[in-house]
Amino acid sequence: MSLVVVGMVNYTEIKIDAPLAAAFRSVGQPTFATIISIEQSSA
User: Which residues contact 20 (CB under 8 A, 6 or more apart)?
Assistant: First the structure.
């Protein structure tokens, strides 16, 4: 999963609290970011 995030966002811009959701949000995919955030908070 870390390779996916680094491939989408510069490693200096990765958010510690929600890296995958922030990566999707930064590339213009807020819907996926929301789905990921909901899944992470319910787990």
Answer: 1, 4, 5, 36, 40
- On whether the CB atoms of residues 22 and 31 are closer than 8 A, the answer is no
Q: Which two tokens stand for residue 1?
A: 């999963």
pTM: predicted TM-score of the whole model, two decimal places: 0.62
Short-list 5, 34, 35, CA closest to 19: 5
Collapsing DSSP states into helix, strand and coil, what is residue 43?
A: coil
1-43 pLDDT tens trace = 666 666 777 778 777 777 788 888 888 988 988 888 887 666 6
